[in-house]
Design brief:
Elements lengths: L2 H4 L18 H19 L7 H12 L7 H10 L17 E6 L4 E7 L6 E4 L3 E7 L2 E12 L4 E14 L4 E4 L2 E10 L4 E7 L10 E4 L3 E4 L1 E2 L5 E2 L2 H13 L4 H12 L2 H17 L3 H11 L7 H4 L1 H8 L8 H12 L3 H11 L5 H14 L12 H7 L11 H4 L11
Antiparallel strand pairs: 1-2, 2-9, 3-8, 3-10, 4-7, 4-9, 5-6, 5-8, 6-11, 10-11, 12-13
Helix pairs in contact: 2-3, 5-6, 5-7, 6-7, 6-8, 7-8, 11-12, 13-14
The chain binds fe (ii) ion (FE2).
Fe (ii) ion (FE2) binds next to strand 3.
């Protein structure tokens, strides 16, 4: 028996054979939920700031997770003659997103995730969400910073809380930087119901946050999917052409030196691997700090967790406990809080042994690319003990980006 079998929080959802007459229940339940929210919110004057509390209360009372049925959603996609006006914030390449009900004031969306989300972000809308099926590790953040211009803020991003959200739990979404989060979807799939307004633009705008200290505005195209400023869309593709040779270094230098702060940040992000391999990353960041301002120096670390995240083959990380270990390794900077969070999220589990077991099994399965040969795994477990001095045989192991937090005091 594995941990995933017996831990109540991470129980596998049973997919019972569903009778045809029950299939309409989830969609009917969501429609009636939408009608109730609409009536109450209309009575309050459709003020965006009132929606989080109203939607949270109605969600908590009506518990649509109890009617969860992916088959009903599948039937609905086949039989609905007129689909509602949709709000899909992920675009055609993102996770499945279905607007099952909408009116000019708000949308009722169902998102089906099979992998966690890499982006720490705030919202340009208000509303609430509930997991209909599966577990999410929910990290919330606070950001203190100053505006470099309208689209870039620089300051400090700090992890505020980490919690496991299981089915039926509701969280309000407040627009703006008072609610910043990252969602690690643990179950495959994790199905989330989101009740939300359209974008409340021009204010507040949505930002995504690059650890440790930079926030950049999220641009969206006409269909609300994530997009780019027009000029950036051209220059990033030009950089892509030039990355086939060392000619790209000079081009990226010009971009980082002369473009607007937002563009400079994202050109650096998109080209950091190329620049690092060419030995030019430090020089380009220094150039950016000289021309954009000192804040640009933080770009040294800004892409690190993206690189680590995208190096993981998430579909191959199946067990809940393995996803939780990886989420903790990427969310925290040091071993102490990683151990604490694992002890809280996986009660009764020895955090040290679990980290080594997770890393070893994922390396063996080819889901993560780490140099962690079987003979050094016991040494890693020893090194995570209290007051242990790491064995010199771990010197190469501890330099790897995913493992750096384990060795940081
Ligand atoms: Fe969000």
């Amino acid at each position: 028996m594995t941990l995933d079998d017996f831990h109540p929080l991470f129980h596998a959802r049973t997919f019972a054979i569903i009778q045809p007459e029950s299939r309409a229940d989830m969609i009917a339940a969501l429609r009636s939920l939408a009608g109730r929210i609409d009536a109450e919110w209309k009575g309050a004057g459709y003020e965006p700031a009132d929606l989080p509390a109203i939607a949270s209360r109605v969600l908590a009372e009506s518990r649509p997770d109890r009617e969860y049925d992916l088959g009903a959603l599948a039937d609905w996609t086949l039989t609905t003659p007129d689909l509602p006006d949709a709000c899909n914030p992920f675009g055609p390449l993102g996770p499945p997103a279905f607007t099952v009900w909408s009116n000019p004031h708000f949308y009722v969306n169902v998102y089906v995730y099979t992998t966690p989300e890499v982006v720490v972000h705030d919202h340009d809308f208000s509303g609430a969400f509930m997991n209909l099926s599966g577990v999410t590790i929910h990290c919330t953040y606070r950001f203190e910073g100053d505006a470099i211009d309208e689209t870039v803020h620089a300051g400090a991003l700090e992890l505020k809380g980490i919690e496991a959200i299981s089915e039926g739990r509701v969280r309000a979404i407040e627009a703006g930087e008072r609610f910043i989060h990252q969602v690690w979807h643990i179950s495959q799939p994790t199905v989330v119901l989101v009740v939300r307004t359209p974008p409340l633009t021009p204010s507040p705008r949505q930002f995504q946050y690059l650890r440790p200290s930079i926030a950049t505005q999220v641009f969206r195209n006409d269909s609300l999917a994530v997009g780019y400023p027009e000029r950036f869309a051209y220059t990033r593709k030009m950089a892509e052409c030039l990355r086939t040779s060392s000619a790209g270094i000079d081009y990226v230098k010009q971009l980082v030196r002369g473009e607007r702060p937002w563009d400079a940040v994202w050109h650096l992000m998109e080209n950091s691997r190329y620049l690092r391999n060419a030995g030019a990353l430090e020089e380009v960041i220094a150039l950016g700090a000289k021309h954009q301002g000192e804040w640009f120096g933080a770009m040294t670390n800004a892409g690190a967790d993206y690189d680590v995240f995208t190096s993981i083959k998430w579909p191959g990380v199946v067990l809940a406990r393995d996803r939780i270990v990886l989420a903790s390794l990427i969310s925290f900077r040091t071993w102490g809080p990683i151990r604490k969070s694992l002890e809280a999220l996986l009660p009764g589990v020895d955090a040290r042994a679990q980290v080594v077991e997770t890393l070893g099994s994922l390396v063996d399965a080819g889901a993560i690319a780490l140099d962690l040969r079987p003979e050094v795994r016991p040494l890693l477990a020893d090194a995570l003990g209290d007051d242990a001095a790491p064995d010199p045989k771990l010197d190469a192991v501890r330099q790897q980006p995913l493992l750096l937090p384990l060795f940081s005091p």
